[in-house]
Amino acid sequence: MIVGAGLGGLTAARVLHHHGVPAVVYDRAPHPDDRRRGVLDLHPASGGAALRAAGLQREVAAITTPGGGALRILDAAGARHYEQHADAVPDRPEVDRRALRALLVGSLPPGTVRWGAEVTGVRPLDGGRHEVRIAGAPPVSSGVLVGADGGWSRIRPLVSAAEPTSTGSTYVELTLFDADARHPVAAAVAGPGLTLALGDGRGLICHRDADGSLQVYAALAVPDRWAPADLRAALLAAFDGWHEGLRALVAEAGGPLVARGIHTLPAGHRWPRTPGVTLLGDAAHLMAPFACDGANQAMLDGAELAAALVGHPNDPEAALGAYEELLFPRASAAAAEAAAMFAVCFRADAPRGLVDLLTSSEQLVTVDA
């Protein structure tokens, strides 16, 4: 039983199905399209490897486009400090998150994912089994329970007392549709892929989607539950004095503006082997959205967990132990890198520190927003 139909949980279910092992996935969303927009760079060693393990290489290739390596870094005045073209990283294609999720759902037998199933509680039973309570439905039980239900997981308390803590920063999500035609001033500052404009503890992170829209994330050091009465006006005040094209990313955004506090689990989060249950994705290693490939890592979690279960068909405890032995060091390294990059991006001298890091070490930065 997998709780959570994000990319990690769906990848686990797909790899299990690919090897003839049945699984059921519960998700509180009413339907598969109930997810926010966004583009994902598929990294060959994590998300790409997971989708290969799922046997979906051809199907994924049909919905990806080049461009995952395109990166532009600006300062508050709009001056360009760094540019990396997409062809510099040819093995990192982009895919629309919703299209990838639809592909994974469609690759599973009908009825595998139970939509509108909100988990309200869980308790251990004898023999490593667990009872899961679902709103409006009788309880169900499982011999192998996987918490793939995000940073505020209801499954995690079975194995760990860790809870997400605030980074002290908040993202506000914005979208500009048909940007080149309708928002030319804003579109002019955005590169062909990812653009980061950084300065004085603030940032505007912008990604150009395949449909011509711009997905924008305004990052601010504000209280966790920051909720001004006029969010757009508060954002424009926060970015007062910034380049007009950067401010246009906020001023001209359509649709609702959504503020989300940025939280993390402790780097190196792990738990003792607990019979019959484990975690993957944000439930296991919620990280800051810089210098990490959170969704890619979640898919790799799902693929490695499924492979371990397939490899130990008569011993789920051995499978879960083998999976966690791989998971813990890999996730710890990714979380530490994410925390370090997050700090660099919001230093007082930003974007100088990030540019120095990129040019000195030739590392690549991605935002998995």
Give the gist of this structure.
By secondary structure, the chain is an alpha/beta fold. 33% of the residues lie in helices and 23% in strands.
Comma- or semicolon-separated keywords:
alpha/beta, seven-stranded mixed β-sheet, 12 helices
Topology:
Elements: E1 2-3, H1 7-18, E2 25-26, E3 39-41, H2 47-53, H3 57-61, E4 64-65, E5 71-74, E6 80-84, E7 94-96, H4 97-106, E8 113-114, E9 119-124, E10 130-134, E11 140-142, E12 145-147, E13 165-176, H5 179-182, H6 184-189, E14 194-199, E15 202-208, E16 214-220, H7 231-238, H8 244-251, E17 254-264, E18 277-279, H9 282-285, H10 294-311, H11 316-345, H12 352-361
Parallel strand pairs: 1-2, 1-12, 2-8, 5-14, 12-18
Antiparallel strand pairs: 3-7, 4-7, 5-6, 9-10, 10-11, 13-16, 13-17, 14-15, 15-16
Plain-language structure description:
With 369 residues, the protein is an alpha/beta fold. Helix content is 33%, strand content 23%. The protein is built from 12 helices and 18 strands. The chain has helices at 7-18, 47-53, 57-61, 97-106, 179-182, 184-189, 231-238, 244-251, 282-285, 294-311, 316-345, 352-361; strands at 2-3, 25-26, 39-41, 64-65, 71-74, 80-84, 94-96, 113-114, 119-124, 130-134, 140-142, 145-147, 165-176, 194-199, 202-208, 214-220, 254-264, 277-279. The strands form 4 sheets. Strands 6-5-14-15-16-13-17 form a 7-stranded mixed sheet, with helices on one face. Strands 8-2-1-12-18 form a 5-stranded parallel sheet, with helices on one face. α1 packs parallel to α4 (97-106) and α10 (294-311) runs antiparallel to α11 (316-345). The radius of gyration is 21 Å and the shape is globular. The two termini are 27 Å apart. The relative contact order is 0.18. The model is unreliable at 363-369 (pLDDT under 50).
